[in-house]
Amino acid sequence: MHVLWLDSKLLQDNFLGDPVRRRIDVYVPHGHNGSDLPLLVDIVGFLSGGPVHSNWKNFGENLPERLDRLIGSGGMPPAVVALPDCFTRLGGNQYINSVVMGPWADIIRHEIVPFVEGRFACGGPGHRGIFGKSSGGYGAMVHALLYPDFWSAAACHSGDMGFELLFLGEFPKFLRALAKSGNDIEAWFRTFESREKHSGTDFEMLLMLAMCASYDPDPSCFMGLRLPVDIHTCELIPERWHNFLRWDPLVMAAENGQGLKKLKALFIDCGHDDQYNLLYGARRMHRLLDAQQIPHQYEEFPDNHSSIDYRMDKSLPILASALTG
Q1: Do the beta carbons of residue 174 and residue 205 sit within 8 Å?
Q2: Any idea where the domains of the chain sit in the sequence?
Q3: How many CA atoms, within 13 angstroms, populate the side-chain half-sphere of residue 325?
Q4: Would you say residue 59 has pLDDT above 90?
Q5: Would you say domain 2-162+248-323 falls under CATH 3.40.1190.10?
Q6: What is the largest CA-CA distance in the chain?
Q7: Is 254 helix (H, G, I), strand (E, B) or coil?
Q8: What is the pLDDT of residues 79-95, one digit of tens each?
Q9: Can you name the residues that pair with 25 across neighbouring β-strands?
Q10: How does pLDDT run across 227-268, given as a tens digit for each residue?
Q11: What value, to the nearest 5°, has the Cα angle with vertex 152 and ends 78 and 1?
């Protein structure tokens, strides 16, 4: 394991005031120096940064231990794996370019990947893959859709898609909680940042605000945050909801899915009991890709959205094998 530090030029003077100096943990297999190996980039779910996957893990493996086992047993070709810290003041990242959250798609492609490839002589065109779960799965799917000339393989574990199923039921709960702060986003956020302990409801609200900052940012508002629903009636505001929907991978794949045919491997999975209703979006994506004759591997498994890192035993060998050689 190597720890690199990137001073991002693209994050200079960013809207949220996030740090520009970013940690990137990099796994290089035993017996290799990284040269000529494929590069996989791990983008993690909401409320996490990449180095969380390097941490010691109780009753299980962290990512380096998983890679040691898979590569050491011959179940996966050797690969360099980068774990970048993309955490933000709003609790996470969707890994797309946003005037509020930051130009994270560009940071990953134009700063993080070249930095790691330059240090270890790995990756390069045709030998880069991206993978993640939840928000990270979303990011991997969107990067595959938007940048198939940069990435050659992607794995989406339980990624955000099917936005009406994911979000529409959450807006009423968000508004009820916001009402306790006088329907004032700034008042709620100031209180959130001042607390020594946060609740699950706090993080659910923060996630919704991060989605607003990602899909429909408005720099003229406090923290660039505005809602796609009427704050009193929860009615959708059509033009703002449209801004959300254009970032739904299902909409993106319907319009630009043909680029996915350039990939050497695309893996998508989701649990039968996913508590965020992502299974149905995953099934729709599978059906949509089949209709467009886009090669991919799709799997469902008997579990929910939580603690499913073991699914990387399926995806990582597929990505590394496709990118080797």
Answers
A1: yes
A2: 2-162+248-323, 165-245
A3: 5
A4: yes
A5: no
A6: 61
A7: helix
A8: 999 999 999 999 999 99
A9: 3, 83
A10: 999 999 999 999 999 999 999 999 999 999 999 999 999 999
A11: 35
